[in-house]
Design goal:
0% helix, 49% strand
């Protein structure tokens, strides 16, 4: 008698939507936008697993240009992962003059998700920094 196939489905119970900005507004160039004051804007998202077990998570990028597929990942106990502007291209979307949208994270267990936003002038010296914890949503 053949056994029925067991389908393993991961249940992602938590979701985090983190605003993600990676762009420059440089007047007089092709990188001119009305959305931001002149300057350079960067985001880094830190993900920490406070659990005592490895958790499963998946991540995607959502923007007006498109939505990437989810990428599955895991995070060991007390481990930290960082996602920066340099990694946005790894999600498979092509952006010509930077990116503005959301990094969406879904996980099996509660996480610490913090965004670090920096802005600077054309010389790329930081003139402001903000740190914000992403709100957890149960799904």
């Amino acid at each position: 008698m053949a056994k029925a196939a067991v389908i393993s489905r991961t249940r992602y119970r938590f979701q985090y939507a983190v605003k993600f900005i990676c762009t420059a507004n440089i007047p007089g160039t092709s990188q001119t936008t009305d959305a931001f004051l002149p300057g350079v804007y960067q985001t880094a998202v830190n993900i920490h697993n406070p659990q005592t077990k490895k958790i499963k998570m998946r991540k995607k990028i959502a923007s007006p240009i498109g939505i990437s597929k989810y990428f599955n990942d895991g995070l060991d106990p007390d481990a930290v992962e960082r996602i920066t502007c340099a990694q946005v291209k790894d999600f498979g979307l092509t952006f010509i003059h930077g990116f503005e949208g959301f990094l969406v994270i879904e996980s099996t267990d509660s996480l610490d998700v913090v965004a670090v936003y920096t802005a600077g002038g054309r010389q790329q010296e930081v003139s402001s920094i903000d740190v914000e914890q992403a709100k957890e949503r149960k799904i």
